Task: inverse folding
């Protein structure tokens, strides 16, 4: 399963719910305002790092750049471009959006 | 534009207006809309404070590059506020801390307020407009 | 939105004649817009037009006229940073007309 989260973790509970319910080996792609969670010092960073043990965590590069966050990405988070986004969708048989 | 700029309603009453920004810049339209409202109402010569709390502090990040998502980079526009005589910019320390940010990460000069200072600033306003 | 042919190129403008894609701007477009606005472009006009383009590049907005006046005064001197001078150049409003010629959107808050 590919989980896609697009809401800020410091504003909504979608990331928290996603990380709680995503099963081992799943992929989590952070896009739009959700990318803030994958940056150094963010209140959600510890949760992301703990989750990275069991899940593959990705963040969309253009959304990081548009938020001034390109240089602040947490270790263990894979930054992908739009092509990588498409590949992730194609690689996984199903996909869940946490709107 | 010129009509509005030179308009004088004659009342001379100056109220304390706070524009409270609590949303990240691109995920919703609130940040850009809030900024435009501030620029428009700057013509009315009121006592305006612009406040950034919660994800709103992200609006002021340095180093924003929006080419990849093909939207306008309005972070530069915060630097025009001074020319519009909007000089009171306040940022919430608690919100910065929760996001691993410091004053140095921000594109404009701001006053960083502690929890109590922010609470008092909010309490003394005549009008608070939230975005 | 309407298309107009300027010096052999199709250019998109909005309902009020402002250039839609400011990256398309060139001197031909400025001259076309000036004719539309019944402004004879002189060096003094160009000085304001170029100032506006620099302001936009720096701040990503077209300034309100009072902000433009103040900023021009700072950069080009008080004899140019006043309403009389700017309205003589652009009788229907310096922000509105000069922005159009500079290929910028209508100033924020312009009514």
Result:
């Amino acid at each position: 399963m590919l989980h896609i989260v697009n809401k800020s973790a410091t504003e909504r509970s979608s990331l928290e719910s996603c990380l709680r319910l995503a099963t081992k080996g799943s992929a989590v792609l952070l896009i739009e305002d959700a990318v803030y969670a994958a940056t150094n010092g963010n209140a959600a960073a510890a949760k992301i790092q703990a989750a990275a043990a069991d899940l593959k965590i990705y963040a969309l590069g253009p959304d990081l750049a548009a938020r001034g966050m390109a240089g602040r990405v947490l270790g263990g988070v894979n930054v992908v471009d739009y092509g990588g986004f498409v590949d992730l969708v194609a690689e996984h048989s199903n996909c869940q959006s946490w709107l | 534009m010129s009509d509005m700029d030179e308009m004088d309603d004659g009342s001379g009453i100056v109220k304390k207006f706070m524009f409270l920004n609590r949303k990240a810049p691109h995920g919703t339209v609130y940040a850009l809309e809030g900024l435009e409202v501030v620029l428009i109402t700057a013509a009315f010569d009121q006592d305006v404070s612009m406040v950034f709390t919660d994800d709103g502090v992200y609006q002021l990040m340095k180093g924003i590059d929006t080419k990849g998502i093909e939207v306008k980079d309005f972070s530069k526009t915060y630097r025009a506020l001074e020319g519009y005589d909007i000089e009171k910019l306040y940022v919430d320390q608690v919100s910065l801390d929760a996001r691993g940010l410091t004053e140095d990460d921000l594109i404009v000069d701001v006053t960083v307020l502690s929890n109590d200072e922010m609470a008092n600033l909010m309490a003394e306003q005549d009008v608070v407009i939230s975005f | 939105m309407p298309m107009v042919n300027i010096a052999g190129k199709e250019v998109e403008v909005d309902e009020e004649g402002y250039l839609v894609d400011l990256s398309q701007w060139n001197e031909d477009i400025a001259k076309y817009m000036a004719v539309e606005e019944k402004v004879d472009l002189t060096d003094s006009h160009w000085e304001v037009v170029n100032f506006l383009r620099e302001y936009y590049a720096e701040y990503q907005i077209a300034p309100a006229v009072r902000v433009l006046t103040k900023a021009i005064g700072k950069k080009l001197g008080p004899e140019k940073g006043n309403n009389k001078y700017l309205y003589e150049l652009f009788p229907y409003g310096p922000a509105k007309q000069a922005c159009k010629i500079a290929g910028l959107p209508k100033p924020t808050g312009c009514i």
